[in-house]
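Consider a typical record:
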Amino acid sequence: MEAAVHLYRLIQQIKELGVKPTVTLNPATPLSAIDNVLGEVDMVLVMTVNPGFGGQRFIHSLLPKVHRCREMIDNVQHPVLLQVDGGVHENTIDDLVAAGVDIFVAGSAIFEDGECAANIRSEGTYESMKR
C-alpha cells in the first residue's frame, strides 16, 4: 500500500500479467486505505511488525486490525486470502487463527538458532495447524 503512488493502476497492471495481486499494510496504515481496492486483490498481507528485520516481537495491539480485516474480506464478492507477517510463533499463532488468518509467515520462529527442524516441530499446536 505505502509503496504505490497509484495502487489501483498497479493492481490492474499486475492482473494483466496474469499474476494475482496482494496488497500489504504496514502496522500504522489503517484498513480504510484498502477500501477501494479490496475487491480487486487476491490477498491482503497485514504486517504485524514494522518491516525491515527479522526477530521482532508481534505487536499484539494489531489483533483487532487483523479481525477487522477478516470481516472486510468476508464482505467481498470473491475469495481474498488474509496473511500476516511478523512475530508469528507458538505464542501468537492461536490468536491469529482465531482472527481468521489464512497464511502465516514465520521466519525467526523457524530459522532461529540453527535449530530449524526442532523449531518446526514445536511451532503452534496441532489444533492450530490443522485448521
